[in-house]
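Human: You know discrete backbone vocabularies at least as well as I do. Show me how you would write down a chain together with its backbone fold. No explanation is needed for now; the record alone will do.

Assistant:
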Amino acid sequence: MMSLAILCMVLGCDAKDSFESIQSDGELVVISRNSPTTYYLDKNGPTGFEYALTHLLAEEMGVALKMKTASNLHDLFTQLKDKEADIAAAGLTLTEGRAAAYPHTIAYNQLTPQVIYVAGTLRPRTVSDLTTMNIAVVAKSSHTDTLTALQQSRAPELTWQEVDEADTMHLLELLKLGHADIAIVDSNEFAVQQSLYPRQKVAFDLHEEQDMVWYLTPETDNTQLIIFINDFLRRLKDDGTMARLHERYFGHTDGVSRISAHVFTQNMQETLPLFRRLIQQVAKEYQMDWHLLAAMAYQESRWDPNATSPTGVRGMMMLTKPTARELGVENRLDVTQSLRGGARYLKDLKRRLPKRLQEPDRTWMALAAYNIGLGHLEDARVITQRQGGNPDVWQDVMQRLPLLEDSNYYEKTRYGYARGKEAVTLVQNIRHYYSILVWQDIPDNQPIPPLRGEDYIPSEINNLQLQAF
């Protein structure tokens, strides 16, 4: 017995399974990357897809969650190896090298490594085209493994520069500034961040779809912990929680065209500074997130206080005459009155929705009602329930709103026909614009380390923030 104990001391063996250690300590320590697709802090606190997942895991284990961040992937895996964290949850793909060195969970998502280029420049179409181009890739990432394999098997002339940062936004910034011709970026990250770089496009997929997994500390008994996490991840997939989380954090990336994203970026630089303080003031009056109010105003009028539609709605929040009268708005072209009217209307819609609706679904539903009215929204929720969906979840209701344009459905509803597709587009666009506005403020809410604001966000957005205050 004594010799076994001495051996364990020498080899660093743990006396108990990591699952038991976590429960004994009362804390799950997770190492992640600081990025919009993984974990970051906004004005309401920690958020992000990986944070949401690991927070649910910690709750399931009955312990507190402690998040840590790494400035690059080498640091991330070093901290995991040194047992400074229990799990690495950072949008990491499964590779042979990592699997040989670190225990891992089952896959909980998939992504595809993509070759990104700038529209208007030479578009590569094959790996051989890359041999003459300046390629930027995150150091120690799975992409370096892929490029090395391609170099050895197919393209010996292939070369690349490795960027020692954990966030792929740095790669896209290099691309934008002309310091690289090509960037290798995972599909989920590019989908989220493309709005800040609307001139950048996917040239082709560098590799087939890859699994995303969590990695655990090596040289540790993780038997119980892996079984627990794998069971947890399977249940989240089976009960739809994983899909809902994915829709919540990534669903808004669909539907907004590259041209629309480019126009939004321009307006964010040139027009938003004129109204930012006023929007923040009104949002504070109505206890709502100013980013949301700004996104609504952009969707409605492109931040144009004199906007007028052919149907007669006017002003920055595009209020109808009856709605303006009901809200006490005397002059729809007065920016302050219009913003206050829109904020008040949304707050009223949220208040009138069933109390059981939770955030953020409650807000997305209210935005849909802002467009087509509560009656038509309720019709869509009824259809959702009849078809076995959840009428309290935006993802499910969103799929049924277009049915309000189909006579096979709307003739059987209480309020009849409605432009359901338009309502879906409005909500998804607002979610998209809202996310961009929130992400530009990430550096203002981050603890130091891991990132400095001037390093994290594009220079023009930094300038926008300086101009606005």
Remarks:
- Residues 1-14, 444-469 have pLDDT under 50 and may be disordered.
- The chain has 23 helices and twelve strands.
